[in-house]
Amino acid sequence: MSVCHRRPIHSASRHYGGGLRSSSRPRQAVGPCFVFRGDDNNVKRKSPLDEGFDFAKEIKAAGGGWFGRKKQDGEEEPRRGSDVRANATVGFVDGILGNASVDVSFERKVKCAKCKGEGRLPRTVIKCPACDGTGIAAEEKAVTVTIPDGGVRHNQMLRLKGQGDSGVPSPANDGDLLVTLCVLYQDEPKETTRDAEGNLFTSVSLPSTVLASGTDALPVTLVDGTKGTLKVPSETKDGAALRVRGKGAISDKSVSSSTARGDHVFVLRACD
Ligand SMILES: [Zn+2]
């Protein structure tokens, strides 16, 4: 289970158009993220230990000992550790704006501390009871992943160098941790929804008389907390949309290098 943390936010100065005034971004309560798609332990990668993986066979095939083959002088040949994959869930506003962090727990393979990766107790032929002779141990680890300022795409992957399986020598050749960020939309602010292009939709209820007459100053709040006003033309129909460009989320479909954002769309509804 991942836990969202919100860092102190700099006083925001987000302007839109001529009618908006900026305000500081509201502080979010620190609380647990809901696990996306029911993933129980928030770690996508299954441990080979849970799958009956035959470590002894692998070790034998590799020439015995820890992960790498040993050279004639007894030194282990360098070998890079495998990358480890994990999932993390990010809240709605954190995913859109970034400047937050999330804790991720995962499991990685390391050299067994008891037998130092030999698989046997020191100076004996007795199989190491700690690792069952494999020389490999599973280590539970937790890291804090920074959500970059400006937000992330849903399913965006972040690479954390050197946090994966232990390599030879460690830590210089340790693998990486690949964290896939699932941006939660179940906890989106009330009455705001979004689509796959990153557009946000907020319904605004107005008396039909106001829609008919129009107004120069309809108060609205963007998802980052910026408050401002929008102009509603006269003779506006129920269901009309006012679009604030580029103030939505990053599109799920954008390529990894792109940070193109959708719009924040205010849908006007007659409330009488
Ligand atoms: Zn051992």
Automatic annotation (TrEMBL):
A GO cellular component entry from the record: cytoplasm
Superkingdom of the source species: Eukaryota
Any GO molecular function: unfolded protein binding
Compositionally biased intervals (Basic residues): 1-13
Keyword Cell cycle: no
Region (Disordered): 1-26
Gene3D superfamilies in the cross-refs: 6.20.20.10, Urease metallochaperone UreE, N-terminal domain
Swiss-Prot/TrEMBL GO biological process terms: protein refolding
Protein name: Chaperone DnaJ C-terminal domain-containing protein
Native source species: Pycnococcus provasolii
